[in-house]
Amino acid sequence: MHQDNVFCPFLGQDLTEVIHTPIEKVVAILIEQFGEPAYTAFYPEHTVDTPLAGMATTAWMKTANCVGINVRTIDSFWNIIPYAFSLPKAQQAIHILPIWEPGVVASLYGMSSWNINPEFYSPALSLVFPHLNTVEKQLKVVINILHLTGRVVGMDVVPHTDRYSEQVLANPQYFEWIQRKDDKIVRHEGDLYNDAAQLIFEAFLQLGCGVPGWTMPQTAAEFYGEWPEEARLLALFGPYSNYSARLQRRKVIIQWLYDHGFETVPATMGPPYRGIEVDPNPDASVYDEEGRLWRDYRITRPQAMSRVFGPLARYRLYESNNNNADWELDFERPVTGAWNYVCHHYNQIAQHYNFDFMRGDMSHVQMRPEGVPAQPDAWYDILGAVKTTVLKEKPWFGYFAESFMAPPGEMAYGDESDHLEASLADSTLGDLQSEPVGTSFFVKEFARYVDTLERRGFAPNFTILTADKDDPRFDAFYLKGNEIRHFIALFLPIMPSYMAMGFECRDPHPQPFPNEYYSKLYVFQLREGPKGTKGKYRWGNNHELYQNLVAQRRLSNEIGALLTPESFEWMAKPDPDGTRKHIGWRTGKYLFLANLDTEKESAPIELNADFGVLQIIFSTIPLKNENFRIKNGKIMMLPGEGLVLGIP
Fold first, then answer.
1. 1.10.3720.10, 2.60.40.1180, 1.10.10.10, 1.10.1040.50: which CATH number matches 567-646?
2. How far apart are CA 285 and CA 313, in angstroms?
């Protein structure tokens, strides 16, 4: 994907000031740069073409440098714009974390409806532009502007919802259900959704129709069989614009289901996936604000990575064997209605807002005990199905998978790489962010990722930081080596990269900081407890790191257009044994070297004599004169250093 036209006028400016740039100033900059198209971008009924328009392939995703943005940390969709203006041209892809109304603990990944999250609305933007008076209009305009300024935009595709989301209550047949009494699951038949539908209908009759004057349905079968979803949502909850009324009506239905012990089957992670029971641990329960007691669940025969996410409900994508008596799914019998429902809604969103790619949440889920089938069909994976649906109108629509390159059988049945290929992933997050730079394990994993890149149909990312790794548990990963992480991500043109917003100035935390400094703790909203936050997210104050990265970004803007995969050649690949800690590559007229060891200088590195007299033109460690380190055709690198040398 071409980077030449990416606009970044705030590169190098203080990020806390950038985010609060007056709207009028941003608008003036856009008009000065783009003229009339800048005016039309502010009209949500207008759609600005993506930079990818006309592209007939998703291959661009395999080298895209992506930045993930948790909008909750910057207050509104609008603030994405000034932040994006601070990024270099090479970081041309913006991933917006989930955009929908959240459910329990306000988790962004526990969506409670298909409506856009109203907390991301900017009152200030509506004062400047009164016609942008809804959060939906503001999101559309933000994506218009990002496209105008040369960037592409991605959304999350989440294959689950909140336990009692509007999706669940309007479509109980598309979810699995259990009935619990105290600490025992008393029923979990595969067709229990019929009983759940009847209970929801009974609560609905007590509430009355959410739209005055509508004729009430006579039976649950009529309501769920003949009424379209749009009408069911209005009847159950009322107009979507009245958030508080919708929530209150939903709480009444939840209470009725709770009184009868009905819950959706919670989402799970890791083999064996199926077979759950109530966790008897006295600490494995919580009272909500309504005084209801919720119990945690656990896998009955757990393996190493088995997890149960109580507040989340996965879509019912397959019928069960023997009416779910043994918690077994029949993968030959897809619930096609559920598949079509999920694909339809995400396709609508992708088309309406003009998203360019999707991040598939929990892409590592592969539930078939026999592993990936030799010939996966259209009902193999829901995330792949969403991508396929959107591709019909957007042939460039990429799929960035949230999977971690785990060993076979650990987080998914079978080989995860086989699964990613079968589910049509273009790139995957990987797990390089979960290890300090420079360890032998890091180097080995990097080598494995490069090997995978060369052999497989998808590309692992060189991931710097993710929102779910920015919490106190992972502080040790980022005490050193941040410059070299950023250097490789920015200048290695054959590999995609991913960086969570805030990495640029993240403080080193030898001891845990206040929770307000960790973006992970803003994926949900807790006011109490060890994960609670009392105020707004705070940017780090690591000015030294930021200035060092800004220097890299300025160089990237100068030479980035010349760094193409076609001109790429490895000089020293990552070492599969993890012993050699330096790597090197050539791209066009530049040689790049990186010392992954953050503790020791490199041994003298032999330079190719055919290159002629090389000159250091950039170092990630600011020094006045670098060339004294080139002697007798060899070069020595400082700990954690990245170098760019010019080839005559």
1. 2.60.40.1180
2. 18
